[in-house]
Amino acid sequence: MKRAPVDFRGQWVLVTGASSGLGREMAKQLVQEHGANVIAVARRRDRLEALRDELANGTTLVHPLVADLATPADVTRLVSEATQLGEIRGAILNAGVTYYGHALEQDLEAFDKLLATNVTALVHLCQHFARYFQSKKNDGGVLLVSSMAGFAPLPYQAAYAATKAFVTSYGRSLAYELKGKGVNVSVFAPGGIATEMLELSGLNRKFKAGDVGIMSAEECARLALDGFQKRRMLTVPGASNKLMAAGMKLAPNGVLLPAIAKIYEGALPEEPKG
Ligand SMILES: NC(=O)c1ccc[n+]([C@@H]2O[C@H](COP(=O)([O-])OP(=O)(O)OC[C@H]3O[C@@H](n4cnc5c(N)ncnc54)[C@H](OP(=O)(O)O)[C@@H]3O)[C@@H](O)[C@H]2O)c1
Which of 160, 170, 176, 264 is flagged as catalytic? Predict the structure, then answer.
């Protein structure tokens, strides 16, 4: 029998990376459209507090929780603070960072932080919340935000794409292992989204809001929450992304890699002349 979509009304949902972009938009929609209470996690306190104030409606709650996911002690503190607030029904592990540029020029300290944020913290939080939902028997779920970058090697975002390949593979494996065992695990793999990530990485030299293939955070958040509510193992949002994902699966590497490299080369800064 088909199960009804998860109803988040009156439930606590934790969202990492809620200070910006996709995470902020999911937090907003969870409160305004789903009637959920949100634990909003990120490093920038001012942004989280502004979100709480913006979403204040006298009915639902937004709890800012400041944590640096690249710091293991913060991840441990986050879990204990979050679970003291009330019973949590959903954990959206969305926070992520990229590095765009030549792989050999990536600062290794920044690489360690990227790995800790995109992979290590995600696995720790995923394990914790999956066990928590099982113990609460509350049909809770974890949503892992990955990327289409995880479907193929991605020149100029080499480390980022590798972390997203990890997230997709890990999430889908876990979803299978936990099927029928009281926890829903869903993976969301979007293509380009118009968020701060494009500006911070320099990808905005080529990719901008409104371009074909760049989705708004609002539309993307709606599709992410829809996949999560319907307990889909993997959601790729939008028809053009789905088509591209299918092409990425079928195309031989000899064709795919140069094509992807060509798209992304276009945003590299110009080499100084002379
Ligand atoms: N934008 C795209 O084109 C795109 C495409 C596919 C997938 N995605 C994925 O979507 C997710 C959201 O990205 P976005 O596009 O919304 O980017 P964004 O606007 O840059 O937001 C990233 C969020 O992650 C948080 N974050 C980063 N490092 C953190 C850390 N060490 N500890 C705690 N929070 C941290 C940031 O908050 P603070 O800085 O306040 O900590 C921010 O809230 C990411 O997983 C990304 O990989 C993005």
Answer: 160
